[in-house]
């Protein structure tokens, strides 16, 4: 099992200069390698852009590329060779993603051809994959970085790693602070017994982050909206500074710290919420939201991205696998908001402004989000694949009511079956035993 452990670094001023030098070395190798690939493509030659091909080229040309123009002496020995290798590795990954995306073998949005990294815009960072790096024996609050030395940490790094094998260490600066992310390898742990909290359905929203089927409401702090005034002021101040000046660099740092604060506020709530859910409930049901489609609505795009629905689901997937809880992902086409949780009547239309659900069939009056969360909980308890006896979510009669308990009928063709989509969201992460 691979796990990422991130710790904050507390370098001295001298070490900060060395960290910036290593990050600059990685960016330098990336840009030089990209320039070579572009030249080969312009000449019509077959490009060699694999990681090992780029490394062979760099080792042959580094004495002529990384040279001080004033003295003529090579300056590449000032930094660890791992810094240059990490830059070439990033370039090889970007080129591979571009090639796969162009050929249709990569999921997600279409990737363009890599662009050169700018010192002002690129995130400073590099990585160690070989050599003596990582945890220092008998020094828990420190990490060893080759060519930089012992760097103090803001927390007990040895306790976080807990004796696991460190495979990789990535160092980067975000929001004016340096941090190290250690990729560690742990032994597969047995899946514990699920929590005893029963089942719960979760309806995610913009106004309230999450509404549970038992009536619990988790407030949305609106991290971006609450800090938007300060961000606008800081960015307006940045735009007025002369490019290349020290004051512009300071203003850019203030903007980066504000963005880091917004991200920290959002991440803190998501971490606490998903941890509570994974430790409390045995079965958790959520919707498969089409976030990319929701963002196309320009009136809701900022609020939807501020809520971080995808991050909420991602954390639930791996945390439920650790605690033994089961995560069920409901089909995005299931009408959870339009369906009455009492009698099953489905409304034809339900506007976003209607925050209270009024059922025309049984007269139920309930909060819209609580009603949706209850329906999600019921759908999550349904089988993963619905057949003639598994129960469909709709009926073909004129009452427009759903049937919770299926009627016995003859098997039908696959094209007429209806699926709620209650598949296990973390089934691939669960350990299977015979």
What strand line-up does the widest sheet have? Answer: 10-9-8-11-12-15
Rg over CA atoms, rounded to whole Å, is 27 Å
Mean pLDDT: 86
> How many separate helices?
11
List SSEs in N-to-C order: EHHHEEEEHEEEEEHHHEHHHEEEHE
Q: Structural class, please? A: alpha+beta
Strand content: 15-25%
**Overall form:** elongated
Number of strands: 15
Level of helix content?
A: 25-40%
* Major sheet characteristics: 6 strands, mixed
Please give the alpha-carbon distance between the first and last residues: 20 Å
Pick out the low-confidence regions. 385-421
How would you describe the overall organization of this protein?
The protein has 434 residues and is of the alpha+beta class. Strand 4 (139-145) and strand 5 (149-152) form a beta hairpin. 38% of the residues lie in helices and 18% in strands. The strands form 4 sheets. Strands 10-9-8-11-12-15 form a 6-stranded mixed sheet. Strands 1-7-6-2 form a 4-stranded antiparallel sheet. A 3-stranded antiparallel sheet has the order 3-4-5. Helix 6 packs antiparallel against helix 7 (246-280) and helix 7 packs across helix 10 (309-323).
Q: In a nutshell, what does this entry contain?
A:
By secondary structure, the protein is α+β, with helices and mostly antiparallel strands. It is built from 11 helices and 15 strands.
């Amino acid at each position: 099992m691979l796990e990422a452990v991130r710790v904050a670094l507390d370098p001295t001023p001298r070490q900060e200069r060395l960290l910036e030098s290593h990050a600059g070395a990685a960016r330098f190798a990336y840009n030089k390698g990209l320039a070579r690939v572009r030249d080969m493509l312009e000449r019509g030659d077959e490009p060699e852009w694999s990681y090992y091909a780029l490394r062979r080229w760099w080792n042959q040309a580094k004495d002529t590329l990384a040279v001080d123009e004033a003295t003529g002496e090579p300056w590449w020995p000032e930094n660890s060779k791992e810094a240059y290798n990490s830059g070439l590795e990033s370039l090889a990954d970007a080129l591979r993603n571009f090639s796969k995306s162009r050929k249709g073998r990569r999921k997600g949005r279409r990737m363009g051809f890599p662009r050169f990294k700018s010192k002002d815009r690129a995130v400073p960072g590099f990585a160690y994959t070989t050599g003596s790096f990582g945890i220092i024996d008998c020094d828990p609050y420190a990490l060893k970085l080759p060519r930089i030395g012992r760097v103090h940490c803001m927390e007990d790094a040895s306790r976080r790693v807990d004796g696991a094998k460190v495979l990789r260490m990535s160092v980067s600066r975000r929001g004016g602070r340096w941090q190290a992310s250690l990729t560690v390898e742990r032994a597969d742990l047995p899946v514990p017994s699920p929590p005893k909290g029963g089942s719960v359905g979760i309806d995610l929203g913009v106004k309230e982050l999450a509404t549970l089927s038992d009536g619990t409401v988790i407030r949305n702090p609106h991290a971006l909206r609450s800090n938007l005034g300060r961000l606008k002021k800081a960015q307006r101040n940045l735009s007025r500074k002369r490019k290349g000046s020290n004051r512009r660099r300071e203003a850019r740092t203030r903007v980066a710290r504000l963005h880091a604060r917004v991200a920290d506020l959002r991440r803190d709530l998501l971490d606490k919420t998903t941890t509570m859910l994974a430790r409390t409930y045995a079965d958790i049901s959520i919707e498969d939201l089409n976030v990319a489609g929701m963002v196309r609505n320009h009136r809701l795009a900022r609020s939807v991205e501020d809520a971080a629905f995808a991050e909420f689901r991602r954390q639930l997937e791996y945390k439920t696998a650790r605690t033994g809880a089961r995560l069920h992902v409901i089909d995005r086409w299931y009408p959870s908001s339009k369906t009455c949780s009492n009698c099953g009547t489905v409304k034809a239309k339900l506007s976003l402004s209607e925050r209270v659900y009024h059922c025309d069939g049984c007269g139920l009056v309930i909060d819209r989000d609580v009603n949706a969360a209850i329906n999600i909980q019921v759908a999550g308890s349904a089988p993963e694949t619905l057949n003639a006896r598994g129960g469909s979510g709709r009926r073909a009669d004129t009452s427009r009511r759903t049937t919770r308990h299926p009627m016995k009928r003859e098997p039908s063709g696959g094209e007429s079956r209806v699926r709620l989509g209650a598949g296990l969201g973390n089934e691939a992460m669960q350990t299977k035993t015979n």
